[in-house]
Amino acid sequence: MTPQRIVVLGGTGFVGSYLAPRLAADGHRLILLSRNREQHRELTVLPDIVIRSADVYDDAVLRRHCGGADSVINLIGILNNSGRHTFQRAHVEMARRLVGICKAAGVQRLHQMSSLNAGAGQSQYLKTRGEAETLVKVSSLNWTIYEPSVIFGPGDGLVTRFTNLLRKMPVLPLARATSRMAPTYVGDVVEAIARCVADDNLATRRSFELYGPQVLTLGEIVRAIRDAAGLRTSILPLPDSLGRWQAQIAGMLPGKPFSFDNFLSLGTDSVGSADGYAALGIVPQLFTAWLPRIILGTPRQHRLDLSRQNFRHRRA
């Protein structure tokens, strides 16, 4: 494997904070573009990782940083519209701009994060993920697209979020409790990307569905989190009429803990049919087995150390 110079967009987010040390362990040189460099200084203690303060929505800035790169990894994604940060801008327009900038900068290799069942259903999140995939696929670049189900791991937005809610509320009303998903461990997603980066012949112009071995309803997931945390919170499944109302109200609260588009996304089961992990020689980990470790809580630096130790050259 030849070490590469890789530019990562969204590299200081949840998945990126695990991916960066994994790729650095393989000897790659990484440039992470971030709006808030000072908030992620712990990543810079790792070898061959540099964080640059950059507005990735500025074409000139993006072109300058991508120049001379062997590949670009786009991890940018949002779960809700917020001001200027809309699904259209973050997913579709970013993909369109990035394809053009890669061509102009002479970068032939693009790794694109997407979502399982992108383009399906009624939510703008899934629709714009699908539009972004189409833009990448019709380009002349050597692309790889990653389509994960909901991702879990220390510091995630699934287990951590529901644990906090369950600790605060005696009864948790739950919209679309029967929605099915196959949660996938962040370390497995990272390993899939690392293997595709290492072997172009394995991954060029291919999409990989990345989903875990357990298919669970949202209600089963929340109950498993509650039980692993040793809590007694009652969980109240809501009919869709009340679930819509809950989403509309919660979408107006600070931080949008649950939005109407989230509600629509849950209308499409996040389960797959083509095992991308098997194609890459990875045995995905169980959601329920990880729950105690996630609920216990892991400081950010410890999480980075674990990722560096556990993912280095891990093979099935």
Automatic annotation (TrEMBL):
GO molecular function: protein-containing complex binding
Name under which the protein is recorded: Complex I NDUFA9 subunit family protein
UniProt domain NAD(P)-binding: residue ranges: 10-150
Organism: Dyella choica
InterPro entries: ComplexI_NDUFA9_subunit (IPR051207), NAD(P)-bd_dom (IPR016040), NAD(P)-bd_dom_sf (IPR036291)
Xref: Gene3D superfamilies: NAD(P)-binding Rossmann-like Domain
